[in-house]
Description:
Blueprint: E1 10-21, E2 26-30, E3 33-36, E4 41-48, E5 51-63, E6 71-79, E7 85-91, H1 100-115, H2 133-146, E8 154-164, E9 168-172, E10 175-179, E11 184-194, H3 195-200, E12 203-218, E13 221-232, E14 236-244, H4 246-250, H5 253-265, H6 279-304
Antiparallel strand pairs: 1-4, 1-8, 2-3, 3-5, 4-5, 5-6, 6-7, 8-11, 9-10, 10-12, 11-12, 12-13, 13-14
Helix pairs in contact: 5-6
Amino acid sequence: MAWRFLPPWLDLESVSISFDLPARTVLKRTGIAALATSSATALRLTLAPTLLRVAFEPYLVIDLPPPLGDMGLQQVEYDFRTGAMTPNVFYTGGPVRVGKDSAEDEARAFMRGLVTSTPMAIPPYDPTSDPDLVVTVRQVLLNLESDGGGPAVRGARVSARLTLREALAGAVGSDGFRIPAGATIAASVDVEGTRQEIETAPRVQRIEVDCSSAVLLKRGVEQADLRRFVVSRGGEIAVERVEPLGAAGQAAGVESLVRLFSALAAGGGVAFDPKHLGPSAVEGLVKEEIARALRPALVDWVRQNAEIVVGMDLRQVL
């Protein structure tokens, strides 16, 4: 589905932002109850075309005085189409188990607090057509930070699942990469900074990419299919999963990696004797050679398309 804040050749399934909350962080107080973390907790906000979900791992504790039994809150979902809010609340202990309905109402109030002062608060709402979606999400984060006096956001991970409507390619000379139309991508971006810094100038630290197919070309020939790689700050690339193509792909075991390495390093004066290296060492050399071959084309593509995501400059990772 096309989203207004992305180019039309990207089909976004969902996007999420997550960050860690310290132990004993109070998100909301009401009456005798407190909604808080019991230990270090990951909070994850997920935005999809029809819903907003806030989830906690491990669950939040709804802390009640004895003998009332405490409860847990795993997540709350908000349906943009109907305005329905569905919390997952359950008892965690204590001899007197009462008040679950009230706890669910408070969980809904927590979600209403997140979307207040945003277009999300008035159903039906369609995030894909929101011209100011980035502003809307910023307000949600502000509401999260200010409700109940915390938590203060510092650093986050932005994750997305996408499908390419069109082929994507980058090249420097006859070397480069190509991702075919229809390929699926799961990408995660680690950013540093306070909420204000993330909003205005997020510092990208690391990008992880899982792709159904990303073909590496060397001297114009398809050599390998990259399935997972990581780009660290400074533009360093670590290839974590790769499948040889062509003649190398037809060979078995270590021989396929040896052939792939030879194809990538041809003309570079690099050689090794596979008899003196174990399979893991050969694989490591191949991944390093792939990273060297991929980097120029990937860096060039990032520089030319640094602002495809509104509000984020991908050049900061280089």
